[in-house]
Amino acid sequence: MSLIVAISGSPSTPSRSGALANHVADDLRNRGFELASITVRDLPAGELLTGRTSDPTIAAAIALVERADALVIATPIYKASYTGVLKAFLDLLPQLAFTGKVVLPLVTGGTIAHVLALDYALRPVLVSLGAQHIVNGLFVLDKALAVSERGLALDADVEKRLAGIVDDFAGSVLRRATATGVLRTTP
Amino acid sequence: MSLIVAISGSPSTPSRSGALANHVADDLRNRGFELASITVRDLPAGELLTGRTSDPTIAAAIALVERADALVIATPIYKASYTGVLKAFLDLLPQLAFTGKVVLPLVTGGTIAHVLALDYALRPVLVSLGAQHIVNGLFVLDKALAVSERGLALDADVEKRLAGIVDDFAGSVLRRATATGVLRTTP
Amino acid sequence: MSLIVAISGSPSTPSRSGALANHVADDLRNRGFELASITVRDLPAGELLTGRTSDPTIAAAIALVERADALVIATPIYKASYTGVLKAFLDLLPQLAFTGKVVLPLVTGGTIAHVLALDYALRPVLVSLGAQHIVNGLFVLDKALAVSERGLALDADVEKRLAGIVDDFAGSVLRRATATGVLRTTP
Amino acid sequence: MSLIVAISGSPSTPSRSGALANHVADDLRNRGFELASITVRDLPAGELLTGRTSDPTIAAAIALVERADALVIATPIYKASYTGVLKAFLDLLPQLAFTGKVVLPLVTGGTIAHVLALDYALRPVLVSLGAQHIVNGLFVLDKALAVSERGLALDADVEKRLAGIVDDFAGSVLRRATATGVLRTTP
Questions:
Q1: B116 touches chain D (CB under 8 A)
Q2: ipTM
Q3: For C113-129, b where at least 16 C-beta lie within 10 A, e where not — what string?
Q4: I want to staple C74 with a disulfide (CB 3.0 to 4.6 A). Which of B86, B116, C106, C174 is the partner?
Q5: Which residue from D80, D112, D121 is facing B113, i.e. has the nearest CB?
Q6: Which CATH architecture has domain C3-180?
């Protein structure tokens, strides 16, 4: 069973991008994948900002990324790019930490004017980490996402596009598992 | 007298990019500018990562940026981009916090392969903050920079290129001061 | 009197971005600048595509860029970036052809989703050409621009923002002329 | 049998990036794929620059891209980005012309300082065309590539990295063929 780790890089809580990542994680868990998650803002802040990778909580988060077969990476767009919080965590990873992994980027933003930040800002960083396949991600407008105690409500068209993207991601993770022979039996 | 604020975004100490920023700040101070500096890794980490701009230290740093006529922004390149530490601070600034300001970007990296990160990753973020003029910055290879207790030693050709860039920046800050009528008398 | 050259990179005619460049050129001429223009689609196509810079028409266009004190560069956004037509001309220029020049980028697009292409795609290319100052440019939605025989009609808010941007550009060109001592007397 | 189309975007001939694309095409043909190629500089120049997609030669090139299961896209880096020649052809394609296709980007440059142009400049354009999977491409230094009448000679380490990249690309094309059920019998 492939392990998928969802990384949420929002500095705020509740967070639209975090809720979106959880929503996708639930969907993937229902499809039989093993899921784990990292919320960067909950990591020890001083250790994160000064790069102390020996801290046990941070070391565990890095090890989780290394064990993962695939990653969901969620961030809001601030100042035309991903958040500093997300990047602070990515900065702690080994240079080619994403080697052999499939990555699904999920991005939220207040205006459609930010949409290219996914491909011009976030994707090059993910590529530099050696990702084997970064599938086409999704940009979701803040107003198409409502977060409440009962979970996430998405506009119908976003829900539909998201389903297609998660299908594509899940298929890519499964093909990778087959190709690399790491397919384990589901319990 | 124009106020120039140097922002250092390295997570480590001592830091090559931080030493470079200090070196440029000393040069600018000698030219008669008022200088102040912000080392992001020294700000309260938990408050920074969770966006608590009401924290007095963070609020003071933001206010310093707003008062500045010009900024020196220094970062190493990690994972094909600026650091998360730097971006975490920029994320806390008002949307157009750099309006009317002149900005000098200074970037260090372990290999010349990272040089385009200045213009493809950092500059678009600085533009999004509304900077009036982002002068041509400098990328310095780690090996051309030696940091010791006696300060920074730069390779001769880097020193020369840096001098030209600081000249250009200082000239732009002075022209801006004249143009906007904010030129104050030097003490 | 400073020479400003407007370069239009649209493959089609009539062209919204070309009309926008002409509109800005007229404004600048009225302010006392000397203006010239290059419409890339009108250059000899075979020579352009195969880099024959010895062709007299192409050589004249390159010489015009080199003589310019400042440039207006206009392109629509296609496929998340500037046009191939524009880039084909920029490819023929000497490596640092924009050294010492002030540049105003003008971009048009069918959707606001393309707006970051100005800063993530076009600006890095202009920086690589050595531009001394690339002022904040303008992205204009196709629907805010009507081109007819009587010229260009712009939405009122675009007209207003454009005026501010042209003011900033003109000021920068004049300051540059003063600073470099190339200010010539206007006839 | 999957059809792979190699697109070469160099304005010059002989061309290092073009020779690299041919080299990879030969390798892929030997693996049993059907290969075709488009050299943009050989298309009718005037029609290309003015977007006349009704021209029979250009229409045939566009149709070839649409029929392709996968693409090899080769360009030198000029002025911190792909060539205008390449982009002029991409500009003529339908908005999502790469939907469902696997893409291998190959880039050559005179200095390692250009390497990030692959991921910051070219990849976002390929993503905007809807590519299903853009595999990790290769940046090759001009001096690691010798083009002569007997073909292409590559430095040994480049040859080795290229082989790994072509393996990955071929594997992705085959998995795509299986997944989408378009696997046709080899003759």
A1: yes
A2: 0.94
A3: bbbbbbbbbbbbbbbbb
A4: C106
A5: D112
A6: 3-Layer(aba) Sandwich (3.40)
